[in-house]
Amino acid sequence: MTRRGAAFPWPRCPYCHSANVVAVGEYACRECGTAIGPVLMPPATKEAPPPPPKYRLTMAALEQVDKRSVRWRYSEVVKMHLGKAAEVLGAEVAAVALDIFKRLAGLPGEVAEGYRGRFSVHSG
């Protein structure tokens, strides 16, 4: 039996199935131009195993923590800007700004009342 007999079939391109494959250091298909690699094997895709249930629970908890921290950081930025605007525009605007801030932030009444000192305009 020849060297390219049944034990060594002529290589074929795994993409275009052409037998026009050259073996010069690496295998390459002359028809489609695909560089097959140093060993003539089609690429094997491996599917990642699904994450365990504990991973999904951990990620859900982290997303909730992240949402709360982002909401808190943005509320701090909004408080700062509302405080500056209230100082410039006066006490009436500060009261309206506080009311709008309470509605937008969805803060409970007693928490939002703690911000009233921040938005109040001091005369003197």
Descriptive key words:
124 residues, mainly alpha, three-stranded antiparallel β-sheet, 4 helices, 50% helix, disordered N terminus, TFIIB zinc-binding protein
Determine the structural class based on helices, strands and strand pairing: mainly alpha
Strand order of the largest sheet: 1-2-3
Measured by DSSP, the beta-strand proportion falls in 5-15%
- Supply the number of helical segments: 4
Sequence stretches where pLDDT stays below 50 over 5 or more residues: 1-8, 120-124
Q: What coarse outline follows from CA principal-axis ratios? A: elongated
**Rounded radius of gyration (Å):** 34 Å
Oligomer: single chain
Organism: Pyrobaculum oguniense (strain DSM 13380 / JCM 10595 / TE7)
Protein name: TFIIB zinc-binding protein
In brief:
The protein is mainly alpha-helical and 124 residues long. It is built from 4 helices and 3 strands; from the N terminus they run E-E-E-H-H-H-H.
How would you describe this protein?
This protein has 124 residues and is mainly alpha-helical. Among the domains are: 33 residues, no CATH class; 52 residues. Helices cover 50% and strands 9% of the residues. A 3-stranded antiparallel β-sheet has the order 1-2-3, with no helix packed on it. The N terminus and C terminus are likely disordered.
Topology, please?
Elements: E1 21-24, E2 26-29, E3 35-37, H1 53-89, H2 91-105, H3 109-114, H4 116-119
Antiparallel strand pairs: 1-2, 2-3
Helix pairs in contact: 1-2
